[in-house]
Amino acid sequence: MMARSWIAKTCLGALLMLAPVTAASGQAPISTLDRIVETGTLRIGYSADSAPFSYLDADESIIGYSIDLCGRVAERLQQQLGLAELKIAYVRRTTSDRVALLKNGDIDIECVASTNNAERRNSVAFSYPHFMTAVQFVALKAGGLRAVADLKGRTVTSTSGTTVISSLNAISRERGLSIAVMSTPDHETGFDLMATGRVSAFVMDGILLAAMAANATDPGQYILSSDALGPPEPYGLMLRRDDAAFVDAVNAALFEIYTKGEIEPIYEKWFMQPVPPHGVNLHFPMSEALAAAFATPVVVGD
Questions:
Q1: Contacts of 7 (CB under 8 A, 6+ apart)
Q2: Which of 31, 71, 108, 113 has the fewest beta carbons closer than 10 A?
Q3: For residues 102 and 65, what is the distance between their CA atoms, to the nearest angstrom?
Q4: Pick from 92, 80, 58, 70: which is nearest to 13 by CA?
């Protein structure tokens, strides 16, 4: 026990040497690694409706690609810190409160599907990418909407707290499309407004739309847009800024998972095989860009 305690303190000390000091307050920022050692718990932010990344199964259990990946990260953090046990506490987050939960210290890591872009990096840090996707829309097939240009003069919806709404408004202005955008509190509400014909389309990351349509009661009613609102962007596990030691520890764990052949079976499980709750197979092969990101992990934005 004494040896394990010494190892934990030694590993923690080495990692915390990298953590900067908060300039505004003159105090050291929240040390996630320190708190993990003290409590023996990693707090993971999850989503209830972001299949296949993070969502609830029929029995309300928390499952998904990002959840599995963070489970592997937790195992390596336990090894890095020399802990006999590392418990996971799941904290439900929404697109609107996820950044606040991180900043307040209510969660240590967000394991869902958050886009890593310059705007969001002003508030949070990101791990190495774990997925890439572009923004598209889903609509009722009977409505005849196929391309972004078809949304001219239409009312569409997207989820609040995402970067999609600002991108959609910008494209609408640039192309003179006069698209009216209605924000919703979650993905399920946005999809339902589209499915019931109250809006013309639901705009969100393509992979999330594909998963929601595939898991709908009648998937054949829906169609994904033929084009995207922009180039593919990376998803990353979201972390607090100014906690470099924890970011480095998470990325060290991901580096091993990515480069030692562990990521491929996890990806295969969630994107190329039937997944709960309806046994739908997304048939979504790993892209060349994502495979390259796994082969040579790089922090986007550095």
A1: 82
A2: 71
A3: 21
A4: 80
- Give the integer Cα–Cα distance in Å for 63 and 53: 8
Q: Are 237 and 250 in contact (CB under 8 A)?
A: yes
- CA–CA dist 286, 130 (Å, integer): 11
Residue-wise pLDDT for 122-180, tens only, equals: 999 999 999 999 999 999 999 999 999 999 999 999 999 888 999 999 999 999 999 99
Rounded-to-integer distance, Cα 93 and Cα 112, Å? 10
Instruction: For residues 76 and 294, give the distance between their C-alpha atoms in angstroms, rounded to a whole number.
Output: 17
What tokens does 106 get? 């209510």
pLDDT score for 289: 93
Tokens representing 291 are 């495979």
> H-type helices in the chain, by residue range?
2-16, 32-39, 65-81, 98-103, 118-121, 164-175, 187-195, 206-214, 244-259, 263-271, 288-295
